[in-house]
Design a protein that fits this description.
Blueprint (H helix, E strand, L loop, with lengths): L5 H6 L9 H4 L1 H15 L2 E2 L9 H7 L10 E2 L2 E2 L5 H17 L7 E4 L5 H12 L5 E5 L20 H5 L1 E5 L10 H11 L3 E5 L9 H11 L2 E5 L4 H5 L12 E5 L10 E6 L3 E3 L5 E3 L3 H12 L5 H13 L3 H23 L3 E2 L8 E5 L7 H10 L2 E2 L1 E3 L12 E5 L1 H5 L4 H25 L3 H11 L4 H14 L9
Parallel strand pairs: 1-15, 5-6, 5-7, 7-8, 8-9
Antiparallel strand pairs: 2-3, 4-10, 9-10, 11-12, 13-14, 14-17, 16-17
Helix pairs in contact: 4-12, 5-12, 6-11, 8-9, 13-16, 14-16, 14-17, 16-18
The protein binds pyridoxal-5'-phosphate.
Length: about 475
């Protein structure tokens, strides 16, 4: 009889299969170490990024990535999926639980690889080609995957396969213009309205948008990719009472791996004109759009890891994290206002602030590059009335990743100070560097390493940021 000792088992593998990454591929290992150092030594204010826990990363790097499981639990096209079925069902259950949803009213698809394709799956599942979508314009805070197009170009494929009409912010209040949305909906008669944004600092009135949807018989898709964590923690108003479909990414405020969740209404009885109940169960439309409509084998390492993140989302720590995210964002906004920054809509209700740099006679592109040179990550962003997306006037910042590292409100005041110093440097250098943004970047590449103000700020940022642990690493 053969003894299955570990020595015997390992002799079946070529030695290379047993090496660690460090041993097998020092080049890639070295680059990962470089990225770890960058993360430790930077202040990350990108509101769509976050840090995942060790447990989430462990599940993501597990053997759950090696198997095919096309189909859904209990109905797969591959054998050997007993364990995968359990994981997917658990992930679905936890997703509903994270948002306090009842499985009689909501179902969820956990297979879509990321947010943009998830939106495309929803459009293809609920609409026919060339059907109409009404969504927030990208330069006013919307997302590419809501169907962005310019006068001359259909930028997002969504705008080629569907007819997209943008709604915008009121340029005075810089809030979503619900009256304009209603006028547009009545004229355009969309089959689906998207409520959601990636650069909007205020609460979205899902109830108002539901009313508009009802008046034109449109689906309401709530895209809560940015704010899902705060909603799961009941710190921001939930779209679930009003939406037909809710999509979120899992890697932003939810703190999971890169992925997405599509929640859809199930078995909800509506009453038609004659009082006869009609059943509009969206399960098969969404599930079929995901697989076999758009995807092949689901990424089970991701699904497994999402399940871990969703369990974390029910902990008291998650709730207090989301409360801190909101407090820190408010503090950042207040401290920037104190330093004479102008904010789009005047402030924030959520995890992000959108600065309008125009009154400071500098643009988002130049400030973004100065801040990058001193280890602060932000996004340049368009603000209402902007003409150029490459040289916009806005800067988008948020509290999500730094709050995960334990940064508190007082420390966010220090961060506001670093930004103020960065902007002052950008203003000073602008004239010297030349007329174009590229001149500015070239100047920075050439002189940044010697410039005393830049080097002093960078040193302060590195020593500030190095105090805070990085989840998943420490
Ligand atoms: C991030 C985001 C998406 C897209 O997610 P990806 O994972 O980058 O594809 C979609 N919608 C909104 C509102 C987002 O913020």
């Amino acid at each position: 009889m053969q003894l299955y000792t570990s020595v015997y088992r390992f002799s079946r593998l070529v030695p290379r299969q047993r090496l660690t990454l460090n041993q097998a591929d020092p080049t890639i290992f070295g680059l990962i170490q470089e990225e770890i150092k960058r993360q430790r030594e930077s202040i990350n204010l990108i509101p769509s990024e976050n840090h995942s826990s060790k447990a989430v990363l462990e599940a993501l790097g597990s053997v759950m990535s090696t198997k095919y499981a096309e189909g859904y639990p209990g109905a797969r096209y591959y054998g050997g999926t007993q364990v995968y079925d359990k994981v997917e069902l658990l992930c679905q259950q936890r997703a509903l639980n994270a948002f306090n949803l009842n499985s009689n009213e909501w179902g969820v698809n956990v297979q879509m690889l990321s947010g943009a394709p998830a939106n495309f799956a929803i459009y293809t599942g609920l609409l026919a080609p060339k059907d109409r979508i009404l969504s927030l314009d990208l330069p006013h805070g919307g997302h590419l995957s809501h169907g962005y197009q310019t006068e001359t170009k259909k930028v997002s494929a969504v705008s080629s396969y569907f007819e997209v009409m943008p709604y915008r912010l009121n340029e005075e209040t810089e809030l979503i213009d619900y009256e304009q949305m209603e006028v547009l909906a009545k004229a355009f008669r969309p089959k689906l309205i998207v409520a959601g944004a990636s650069a909007y600092a205020r609460i979205i009135d899902f109830q108002a948008i539901r009313k508009i949807c009802d008046s034109v018989k449109a689906y309401l898709l709530a895209d809560i990719s940015h704010t899902a964590g705060m909603m799961a923690a009941e710190q921001l108003p939930s779209p679930f009472p009003y939406a037909d479909v809710v999509m979120t990414t899992t890697h932003k405020s939810m703190r999971g791996p890169r992925g997405s969740l599509i929640f859809y209404r199930v078995g909800q009885k509506e009453v038609d004109k004659n009082g006869k109940p009609i059943n509009y169960d969206l399960k098969s439309k969404i599930d079929q759009a995901v697989f076999p409509g758009l995807q092949g084998g689901p990424h089970f390492h991701t699904i497994t890891s999402i399940a871990v993140a969703l369990e974390e989302a029910k902990t008291p720590e998650f709730k207090s994290y989301q409360m801190s995210v909101l407090l820190n964002s408010k503090k950042l906004a207040d401290e920037l206002l104190k330093r004479n920054f102008s904010l789009v809509s005047g402030g924030t209700d959520n995890h992000l602030v959108l600065v309008n740099l125009k009154p400071k006679s500098i643009d988002g592109a130049r400030v973004e590059s100065i801040l990058q040179a001193v280890n602060i990550s932000v996004n340049k962003n368009t603000v209402p009335k902007d003409k150029s997306a490459l040289v916009p006037n806005g800067l988008r910042m948020g509290s999500v990743p730094m709050t995960s590292r334990g940064v508190n409100q007082d420390e966010f005041a220090q961060i506001a100070d670093f930004i103020d110093r960065g902007v002052a440097i950008a203003q000073k250098v602008k004239g010297e560097a030349g007329p174009k943004v590229q001149d500015f970047k070239d100047w920075l590449a050439k002189n940044g390493d010697q410039h005393p103000d830049i080097q002093k700020l960078k040193k302060d940022v590195v020593s500030f940021s190095s105090q805070f642990p990085v989840p998943g690493l420490d």
